[in-house]
Amino acid sequence: MSVGVKIFAGRASEHLANQIAESYGVSLGNVKVLEFSDGEFQPSFEETVRGQDVFIVQSTMPPADNLFELLLMVDAAKRASARKIITVIPYFGFARQDRKDKPRVAIGAKLVANMLMAAGVDRLITMDLHADQIQGFFEFPVDHLFASTIFYPEIEKLNTGNLIMAAPDAGGAKRANSYAKKLDVGLALCHKQRQKANEVATMTVIGDVTGKDVVLVDDMCDTAGTLTKAADLFMEKGAKSVRAFCTHAVLSGPAYDRIKESKITELIVTDTIPLKQQSDKIRVVSVADLFSDVIRRLVNNQSISSHFIIS
C-alpha cells in the first residue's frame, strides 16, 4: 500500500498552503482551531493522518503564537500516528538570533530548533534562512531553498545591458555577488553602521552606479530603513533606477510608508509572509509551485538540487 501525503496549514500561512496543495494536486487538509476565552488555542486534525506523510505549512513570524501553533500541530500529528511529519516553514522566525552577539542573550534560532525536534518533526523545508548555519542546529534533514530560483528569471527580464547588482549591507554581499556572477554584471555595496537595532546611523556606497539600473537583493525587509536609505543613496550617486528583491516581506513599523516615500521603483517579494497591506510599489511572486515541487520530489525520493540556481 502506497503512503499517502496530506498537507495542512497553520492559520498564519493558510493562503500559501492552499496554493501549495493545489499545485501538488491535493486538497488542503482539514484543521480546526478551538480558541478559549483567555487566548489559549487547540488545533486539531479533522481527518485521519495515521500512516501518512504529513506536511504542515506555517511561517513563524511574530506573534509567537504562530510558532506555538505549529508545535501543537506537530504534537497532534505525532500522537495521531502520522508516519512522517515534515514542517514547511517558508519564513523561519527568530533566525536573526543565531549566535551570542553580546553577553547574556539567548540563541533564539537554536531554541526554536530544539523545540521542533522535541515536538517530533522528521524534516524541515524552509527558504532563505537569515543565517545559513542554522541548518546545523537540527539533527534531522533540512532542505534550505533559495528564492533566487524565482527571482533570477525576474531579474533577467530587467537586464538591458545596464544592470548592476547591489547589496544593502555587507552581510548581503555574498548573495548579491552570486547574482552578479550568474548575470555577468557589476556589483555595488552599501556599508552601514548601526547605533541600535532597526536604526541605521550612517551609510556609504562602494562601487560606481552612475547611469545604472540598480537591483538590490536581500533575504528580508523588516522596517525597510536599510533598504530605502540604500536606494536613496544609490540615486544620489547617479543611479538611473533602483529596484529591490527581498524574500521575506516582514514589513513592520514604518516600512510601508518608507517604501512609498523612497526612490525605489519597485520592491519584489515572495508570499512566505502575507502582506499586511497593498502598495503600488510592492509586487508579490509566489513560492507555491517551488514548494509543491520540492514536496513531490521528496515523496518520490528525487533530487532537489536543480532548485539551487544560486547559493
Automatic annotation (TrEMBL):
SUPFAM superfamilies: PRTase-like. Residues 5-120 form the Ribose-phosphate pyrophosphokinase N-terminal domain. GO terms for molecular function: ATP binding; kinase activity; magnesium ion binding; ribose phosphate diphosphokinase activity. It catalyses: D-ribose 5-phosphate + ATP = 5-phospho-alpha-D-ribose 1-diphosphate + AMP + H(+). Keywords: ATP-binding, Cytoplasm, Kinase, Magnesium, Metal-binding, Nucleotide biosynthesis, Nucleotide-binding, Transferase. The keyword Secreted does not apply. Signal peptide: none annotated. It comes from the Bacteria. One of its GO terms (biological process) is 5-phosphoribose 1-diphosphate biosynthetic process. Its EC number is 2.7.6.1. One of its GO terms (cellular component) is ribose phosphate diphosphokinase complex. Pfam families: Pribosyl_synth, Pribosyltran_N. InterPro entries: PRib_PP_synth_CS, Pribosyltran_N, PRTase-like, PRTase_dom, Rib-P_diPkinase. The keyword Metal-binding applies. This is ribose-phosphate diphosphokinase.
